[in-house]
């Protein structure tokens, strides 16, 4: 498998999951401004959407969208317990978090990267983000991870997105449980390996 990624982007979550699972893979960096891969390939020919992540499977097929990729990867090694069995309520709980992170946290934080965002829109976006992080903070109280004591693919996704906050000037101190979660996930060996590989630490 080959993961097409950009350092620190949302492709960080499947990169983390690949290392958590210890699956064989290669990576290729993508310049998202030029839409070129490190080997000079037009990235649109790999993923017509033009953004990372994209996972090229051994049969040549390409899977896109982070939440889909990390669930697919987890199912390749179910004994690692990064995703509960299909059809279980526990699986649905992880998917519930993946949907919330994708629609309510990822999209909200990503909007702040837009250099043309107005001051009013930025203020409203930060207010909305505060509500979403407040919900996450409360859910994490008494839990190491989103669904309890066990790390799942949803935790890799949340860590990746919340990791953008400091570079956007967002102070996370009002949500101490989220801060503790970020530190807890960052300390995992597979996460350290991934952050180092992407030049983030």
Written description of the protein model:
The protein has 201 residues and is an alpha+beta fold. The protein is globular and about 45 Å long. The protein has a 5-stranded mixed β-sheet, covered by helices on one side. Helices cover 48% and strands 9% of the residues. Strand 2 (26-31) and strand 3 (36-37) form a beta hairpin. Helix 1 packs parallel to helix 2, helix 1 (12-21) packs across helix 7 and helix 3 (89-111) runs antiparallel to helix 4. The longest helix is centred in the middle third of the chain and has 23 residues, at 89-111. The chain has 7 helices and 5 strands. The mean pLDDT is 97. GO terms for molecular function: transferase activity. Residues 1-81 form the GST N-terminal domain.
What layout of secondary structure does this protein have?
Blueprint: E1 2-5, H1 12-21, E2 26-31, E3 36-37, E4 54-56, E5 62-64, H2 66-76, H3 89-111, H4 119-140, H5 153-162, H6 176-186, H7 189-197
Helix pairs in contact: 1-2, 1-5, 1-7, 3-4, 3-5, 4-6, 5-6
Protein name: Glutathione transferase GstA
InterPro entries: Glutathione-S-Trfase_C-like, Glutathione-S-Trfase_C_sf, Glutathione_S-Trfase, Glutathione_S-Trfase_N, GST_C, Thioredoxin-like_sf
Pfam families: GST_C, GST_N_2
